[in-house]
Amino acid sequence: MFDRLRSAEERFEQLNELLMDPAVVTDQNRYRDLMKEHKQLTPIVEKYREHMAARQERDEAKAMLDEGGLDKDFKEIVLEQLDESGKKLEQTAEELRILLLPQDPNDDKNVIIEIRGGAGGDEAALFANTLYRMYSMYAEQKGWKSEIMYASETELGGFKEISFAINGDGAYSRLKFESGVHRVQRVPETEAAGRIHTSTVTVAVLPEAEEVDVDINPADLQIDTYRSGGAGGQHVNKTESAIRITHLPTGIVVECQDERSQYKNKDKAMKVLRSRILEGEMRRQQEEIAAERRSQVGTGDRSERIRTYNYPQGRVTDHRIGLTLYKLEAILNGALDEIIDALITADQAEKLKAQD
Prior knowledge:
By secondary structure, this protein is α+β, with helices and mostly antiparallel strands. It is built from ten helices and eleven strands. The chain has helices at 2-18, 22-25, 28-67, 72-99, 122-142, 171-175, 234-238, 262-297, 328-332, 337-355; strands at residues 111-117, 145-153, 159-167, 180-186, 197-207, 221-226, 242-247, 252-256, 305-310, 315-318, 323-325.
């Protein structure tokens, strides 16, 4: 672990120098990538230095005790320093283990949240609206921006379905645990009988899809030249200016013979090829998102719940970690951090356990 940490610190110092280089600053793409890496390394390096400072304090305290000759009062101070530095070492070592866990590559992304009414008809649609309000208020508290993408409203003011984007630093890392079925227990606003009903709402949290960059390896291309066909005068018959490019990994074939210049035909064919590969990548990406959405949402059946909101008792229970909070009103007003922090801690504990 400490070899990795020393390497991280060296890279961090290297990044500090690069980010002050005028040549880097003027290259927007490189500067952005280096800033992102710097941001990711900062908490790791800061915690590593905190750990090393605690180690130095411990070693100094041990050395003074080993030398002896300390008066009673000073010895007590040194013993206290030894104890505190030892605890700090244990704490920072555990925190470093967590910081070094593999990161979800989507964690820094913005999110698209989709909420749909499940079991419960109009009451489920009304609670879908309540959850939309909860996430919107949470985003506002975090300084994030939210924007409705699509909404299907009911006559009573609920949502059969609503899709909205939340843009903010680390939005996905905080909100990804919200995916699943949310259950509500309350006296429906649509009834006057006073009986408690149970309804469900499904929530899917998706990382916002980024533009797909197409990187074509020249070794993956088979390029053939041939004489253009059709009417074109003497030039058509004498020069092999037409181009056929085959992208071997995908089997995509592109031909171009519009130009007299072989170079121009190749340039055009490559543009078409990139467009077709991009289209294929985007289609696959959309299919993966659709598959993720299906796996997250499930059927909306009450037995698939991840969380229950019980109005009569003012209680919210997250069933995945057995957490119950009697703070229903505050949570529905966007106070989600206590639940999200607990879910992140549980997730980290599982990952640490898997490493042992």
